[in-house]
Amino acid sequence: MMKVEGNAGFTLYDRQEIETATNNFNKAHIVGEGGQGTVYRAMLGGTAVAIKMCKEIDESRKMEFVQELVILCRVNHPNIVKLLGCCLQFEAPMLVYEFVQNKTLQELLDLQRSRRFHVTLGTRLRIAAESAEALAHLHSLPHPILHGDVKPANILLAEGLVAKVSDFGCSTIDESTQTVPKGTPGYIDPDYILEYQLIAKNDVYSFGVILLELLTGKKPLSKERKSLTSMFQEAMVNGTFRELLDSDIVDEASMRVIHRVAVLASRCLVVPGTTRPAMALVAEELRRLALADEVQRYPQPPLVLEGLSFVDTGSTISIWYDESKTSGVYSLENKAVLSTEFAR
């Protein structure tokens, strides 16, 4: 490995190091697969890491790519997955991230939908606030970093359900070569589909969709392909928004806060997006709402998993299933296998 001079936090890894750490990319090391590549769990220098394979880049752009990654490695925020370095000795760049145990917000939402346990409004708003603060930090840097694929699967949940935004490294790859939009259906800003030009307000739109998921418990696209965004906007106009809400968080004492979150989500989803709030303002409002007295009145009960184990289905969706009658607490010490799609 080689440290880039003047940038102690950035490491250029050798091809042999990466191959050894992943046992020549053995399938047993895979912890996530998605549209942007495969993620492997590995040990480098005695440290657990997640190694992500990006898409190929033009040879002439490799030095520019390294310069951009050096900037990403300087990002230091408690709610952002740390990028440690890369290896450019393969056809496609390999990005090396810190390894984050536990699961993703996507998986937490899926478990909540199955009513396996109760996630309070306060916990949802805290995770949202931490995620918004992370995106606001990326947007506020002297060399702003735009995520481009904000979604629950890219928000990891560390011990204590602390949010860590991931998968922003590949967004540095040259935008001018795009022929299809980045992002995930259901979360893509309509403005971006028209322009193919990534801006901060695209991330704000995608985050607005996440707020709707946290409030309603519904997926961004129904089986009939109807978007949650359009359902929400219709309900707000018709005064039927309460019918969309997740019954687990509907409580008279919290309706004032829920309404304010809904209004905030509406502002994030405005099209065209010129009047959308900056992520810093979104984060500030969410932090304030998460600390509201009527929200804090309901502490988060322990997330007890009734004999649930993680099953890798070979896709980007992960599930839990009943294995025994034993129970455990959702934490690093849980005897259940707490794997995740790292830095997808």
Radius of gyration, taken over Cα atoms and rounded to an integer in Å: 20 Å
Profile the largest sheet.
7 strands, mixed
Number of helices: 11
Query: Runs with pLDDT <50, length 5+?
Result: 173-179, 305-344
Report how far the terminal alpha carbons are from each other.
24 Å
Quick one: how many beta strands? Answer: 12
Q: What's the average pLDDT?
A: 80
Strand content: 15-25%
Q: What number of structural domains do the residues give?
A: 2
Strand order across the biggest sheet? 1-2-6-7-5-4-3
**CATH superfamily caption of the largest domain:** Transferase(Phosphotransferase) domain 1
Overall structural class, as computed from helix and strand content, comes to alpha+beta
Tell me the series of helices and strands, N- to C-terminal: EEHEEEHEEEHHEEHHHHHHHEE
Could you explain the architecture of this structure?
The protein has 344 residues and is an alpha+beta fold. Helix content is 34%, strand content 20%. The chain folds into two domains: 14-98, Phosphorylase Kinase, domain 1 (2-Layer Sandwich), CATH 3.30.200; 103-296, Transferase(Phosphotransferase), domain 1 (Orthogonal Bundle). It has a seven-stranded mixed beta sheet, with helices on both faces. Strand 6 (83-87) and strand 7 (94-98) form a beta hairpin. Helix 4 packs antiparallel against helix 10 (279-290) and helix 6 (200-216) packs antiparallel against helix 9. The chain starts with a strand and ends in a 15-residue tail after the last strand. Residues 173-179 and 305-344 have low confidence and may be disordered. This is Protein kinase domain-containing protein. GO terms for molecular function: ATP binding; protein serine/threonine kinase activity.
